[in-house]
Amino acid sequence: MLPAIDPLSFPDAAFIGDVLVVDVRGRNLDAVESVQVKPARGVRAMLGDPLTRRDSPVHAGPDRLTVTVQIDFDAYPGDRRLWVQSPTGDSNPLILTVML
Known about the structure:
mainly beta; globular
């Protein structure tokens, strides 16, 4: 089954310089292997929380996942699409607006 992200569990905007660590809700998140952002210039996304121990679990269950998004200072303002990927396919995309 495809993963799905609940749009209400993720902020819809962030400022340049922000680091967002979000506990994303959804379905079929236990097999997620990566998180993608397009256009990616100046915005980095990763699974997990970089401030926790490296051996701590990224997933808390099939309905919850920790995602970190860093907005670099050279990022251009505007909309980005963010989604997660699993072996079964991609989730629904979310819109994240980068603001000055």
